[in-house]
Amino acid sequence: MPKGPWRVLHVITNHEKQVTKHLDARLLEHYLPLYSERSRWTDRVVNLERPLFAGYVFVRFAPEARLSVISTPGVLRLLGDEARDTVNEMEIARIREGLASGCILRPHRGVALGSWVRVMKGIFEGAVGVVTDIRQQCKVVMALSATRQCFSLEADVDDIELLRKPPAEEMPCRGRQLALGRI
After folding, report:
1. Is the C-alpha dihedral spanning 154, 147, 174, 111 positive or negative?
2. Are residues 113 and 40 in the same domain?
3. pLDDT at 60
4. Residue 154 class from Cβ within 10 Å (0-12 exposed, 13-18 middle, 19+ buried)?
5. Residue that terminates a domain, selected from 66, 100, 134
C-alpha cells in the first residue's frame, strides 16, 4: 500500500459505503470514518452508522491507479492535485483514534468569517446578517444591517442558515457595533 498523504474523493452523497465496497474490490486503500447515531423509526429505535464527512471518502493510491480510482462507480471527482487538497497521515490517525476510543465526533457545518447567514430561530428569525466573529462553543456574533446601523447578536451555529451570496437589498452597515449578550 502506498504511504503518503490521503487524497479526497468527492462521491455521491449517501453512496459512501457503496463506493468503499468498489474500492475494496479494486484493492485500493481507503478510509470512511463513520459515527453511530440512534434514530427513531416509527416502530423502533435503531443505531445507524453514518459518514462523518457526507459525500467524501479518503483514498491513497499509486499514481498509476488514478484512472481506477476516478472511474469507481459513485465517484464524482478527485479533489485537488498532487500538492493540494490532501490530508496528512496524522489527521486521519487522529480521527481513527478518536472514533476508536469513543470520542463523540459528529459532522458540523462550517461557518466562516464574512459568511452571509439567516437566523432560523428565535426573536430574530428571518433576519439576515454577516458573521463577524466566531466564539467558543460554536457561538457566532452577527452584524444585522437592515437598518444600515449595526448591532451584534449571538446565535448558535445550529440556529443559522448559511446563504450562498448576500441578498441584493442588504447594504453594508454603518456606525458602531454594539454587543448584545455575552458568551
Report:
1. positive
2. no
3. 92
4. middle
5. 100
Domain extent for 121: 108-183
pLDDT, tens digit, 9 for 90 and up, residues 82-135:
666 788 888 888 889 988 988 878 877 677 778 888 888 887 888 888 887 777
From CA 90, how far away is CA 17, in angstroms rounded? Answer: 23
18, 79, 56, 3: CA torsion to nearest 10: 80
Which triple of cell numbers denotes residue 65? 491507479
pTM: 0.66
CATH number at residue 91: 3.30.70.940
Residue 134 maps to a domain: yes
Q: Indicate whether 158 and 136 sit together in one domain.
A: yes
Q: Residues with Cβ < 8 Å from 141, sequence gap 6 or more?
A: 131, 132, 133, 134, 135, 152, 153, 154, 179
Q: Residue 34, SS3?
A: strand
Say if residues 129 and 117 touch (Cβ distance below 8 Å): yes
